[in-house]
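Exercise: predict the fold of this chain.
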Amino acid sequence: MPESALPDSTLPDSAVPPATRPAAVLFDMDGTLVDTEHLWWQATAELADELQHALTDQDAPEVLGRAIEHTAAHLHRVSGTSLSEAELADRLGDSFAGKVAAETVPRPGALALLAELRDARVPTALVSASPRRVVDLVLATIGRDWFAVTLAAEDTPRTKPAPDPYLAAAERLGLDPADCVAVEDTPTGVASATAAGCAVLAVPSSATPIPDGSRVTLLDSLEHADVALLGKLTTSPGV
């Protein structure tokens, strides 16, 4: 589907009234739609071990939800390696892409929610801090046609936790970010979406706590999310 196209308008109407549907739903990828966050941690941990740095929970804020370049800079800083940040980023990217190519599993409830949104004619976007080659590997597995817009790390001047990716997704859809719901799994992603002005449904993929916010709603699984709930988030924050 072209990036500018919306889901097929010939699909049947949802039972959810249009007034109670979100204008759009903007999905994070790793750890939210697909179970790849642990693969990113594995890739980082393996490289950290080579650099004689044992990755711990203290490193999580610099790894989970972060762009490859950010994590590479962190490893460079904490290990004191003679390798450059660019070399570390290349190695991280290659390792992560290889793991994703070998193992991409949708998160529970993810595809069912995407199908419900399509049936309700609610446009969706994929908003990832992963590089385009990793995004394309995932899309080849779960399907590109779910999304009207896809954004990877290279597609905005700054990536998460800056608001740029979510602002760009809303702009490409022709919508106000305040009318959109972002679905995220990490504090970094939640910070990006809230800074853009989106309501947020947070479904944590790790033990790292998600900061509370007036427009942040926590849920333990996408299996418990539906169009009606997402629609409420833009008008009744903190549901």
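Check your answer against the key: The chain has two domains: 18-35+105-233, 37-102.
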